[in-house]
Amino acid sequence: MRAKLLVHSRDYASIQAGVDKIIPAIEKQLEAVKDELQGVQDYPNEELISIIQEVGFECDFCARCCTRVFNDHVFLLNEDVIRMNQINPDCMEPAPYFELCDQQGRFYVSGYALKAKEDGSCIFLNEEKRCKIYSQRPTICSLYPYMLHREPDENGNVDWRQISGLNQHGCYHTEISDEEASEIADQIKSYETSYLSQLIEFFKKAEEHFSKKKLKHVQGVYDREMRKFNKGGEITVSVYYNGEFVEHKFKGQE
Fold first, then answer.
1. What is the pLDDT of residues 9-39, one digit of tens each?
2. At what angle do helices 178-213 and 45-55 cross, to 10 degrees?
3. Under the phi-then-psi rule, with left for phi > 0, alpha for psi from -120 to 50, and beta for the rest, what region is 67?
4. pTM of the prediction?
5. What's phi and psi for 122, nearest 5 deg?
6. Which of 31, 145, 184, 226 to pair with 130, CA 20 to 30 A apart?
């Protein structure tokens, strides 16, 4: 339900002379996500279980979590994309917050997201505020509002966040058994591990692609193209999926 940074470091000595060293942006993100992945794996299960039981979330079918007012976007793991392609290939779009932009103005992003309707609600939310694909919904939807990642608070202090939208929707303090809470904790860690691993694969592929094509990330070009996109212009976005980049023409909304 949010975009993130990622990946794993490698030895750059083998990159041929004369080619720009793979963008510092990639290198820094690799280190940051490598650290976060380790943090997820090391996060104490008993602490996560305790938080889950303390929160005791129970859905009250308000459907607020299915709108962009409450959740910016629904990020899809590769396994989710396979299911969505079977349901409706047109339900997806490049995930927002593109990680990279080369000097030719092409963006690169680590995956897809679900599209939203004009009112900001999920493309699969019906008029009765029910999910039309509930049994096949994306992985993060089945776990929400539980999560496990680091982000800054309102004061800029970075710490773990385990719950989204606390006290903004749903019911709380429902009794959750030790067994159920343990299962939820395992699923959360599994999701976050898969998410970060997919980002790691994305950066490794980008590293290879940028080196081969003698590309580099240029922040000025990124900013220029985003201004065009935000005014309704068309941009080119390469989405990482199934080990490759899939190119899309993507038009913004004024």
1. 223 233 223 233 444 678 888 888 999 999 9
2. 120
3. beta
4. 0.86
5. -60, 145
6. 184
pLDDT band at residue 5 under the 50/70/90 scheme: very low
**Residue 78 and residue 92 in contact, taking contact as beta carbons nearer than 8 Å:** no
Decide if 193 contacts 41 (C-beta within 8 A).
yes
163-180 exposure pattern, b = at least 16 Cβ within 10 A, e = fewer: bbeeeebbeeeeebeeee
- Can you give the C-alpha Rg of the chain in angstroms? 19
In this predicted structure, what is the pLDDT of residue 29?
Answer: 84
3-state DSSP assignment of residue 251: strand
131, β-bridge pairs:
125
Do 4 and 149 meet the contact criterion of CB atoms below 8 Å apart? Answer: yes
Distance in angstroms (rounded) separating the CA atoms of residues 173 and 32: 34
CA-based nearest residue to 187, from 142, 155, 227:
142
Contact between 92 and 115 (Cβ < 8 Å): yes
Residue given tokens 């929707």 in the structure block:
169
Q: Are 70 and 168 in contact (CB under 8 A)?
A: yes
Encoded tokens for 194: 């898969």
Most confident of the following: 19-33, 153-167, 238-252: 238-252
Cα 139-144-147 angle, rounded to 5 deg: 90
CA distance 39 to 41: 5
Q: Which two tokens stand for residue 248?
A: 């899309």
- Tell the residue number behind the tokens 């000025």, with chain if given: 220
Distance CA 208, CA 206 (A): 5
pLDDT above 90 as % of the chain: 77
Mean pLDDT of 179-201: 96
Q: Which two tokens stand for residue 76?
A: 């899809």
